C-alpha cells in the first residue's frame, strides 16, 4: 500500500536502532543544540552515494576547513528527517525537493534545503528483458510506494511511451491516474528500499539511484530507461531544520560539498550514475 510513512518492520527497527545509538551517544557524539555550534556536525545520510560523498569530505577536506564532521547512516527515507527535526542530528543529506515538500506537509516538520549537490537518475531495470519495449502484456512492474517517488516512477514510464498519464497529473500520481496502458502493465507498490531486491520477483522495477548503486547496479549502463538530468527537480541536497541555515558548521559543509574536489570525486566514482548539480 502506498504510504509515505509506512516502513517494513525490519527497516523501521533498523532505523530505530541506528537512531537510538545516535541519541544515546556521549556528549561529544550527539547533535548540538541550535544555539551551540561548538560541537561536531552530525549529518544523517543514505549509505550510497550520500554517506560516501560525506566520507570523502570528512577524510580529505573537513579537517583543513576546521570542520568536525560525523556521518550517521540510515537505510530509510523517514528517520533522517524526523531526527533532524528533533535535533538528534544537525542535518541530513538524502532527499529532493518534491519529497521534502510532501514530507513537511504530511509530517508537520520544518526541514529546509541548504545546497543542492547531485542528481541520481531514476531508472527502470529488469532481470528478464533487455529492452523496455520487450516487456510482455500484463508484465508486473515494481514502483516505490511513497507518494513522490511513485509519481516520479510513473512519469519516467510515461516519458518513455510505456504508459500515458492524465493531463495535469503532478507529484502525487498513482496507477489510478494512468489514462492509457497499452501493455496492460500491472504495478506492485513496494518500499523504495526494496525495489532493487524485488527484481527477481517482478518483470521490471523502477529503482531510485542510490538503491540501485547499493545493489551493485550501474544505472548509466544497465537501466532500460533512465531519467533525464535536464531541468530535473530531483537534485539531492543538504538540509537542516529551519533556523539552522546560518550554523557556521553547516555553511562550511555546504561549501565543501560544492567544491571542485567533490565534483571530481562524484564524476570519477559514479561514472554518470550520479551527476553533480553544481
TrEMBL record:
Source organism of the structure: Streptomyces longisporus
Alphabetical list of InterPro entries matching this protein: Lipoprotein_NlpA
Lineage of producing organism: Bacteria, Bacillati, Actinomycetota, Actinomycetes, Kitasatosporales
Membrane topology field: Lipid-anchor
CDD domains per record: PBP2_lipoprotein_Tp32
Protein name as catalogued: Lipoprotein
Pfam family, one: Lipoprotein_9
Entry's localization field: Membrane
Sequence similarity: Belongs to the nlpA lipoprotein family.
Signal peptide range: 1-23
Keywords: Lipoprotein, Membrane, Palmitate, Signal
Main location: membrane
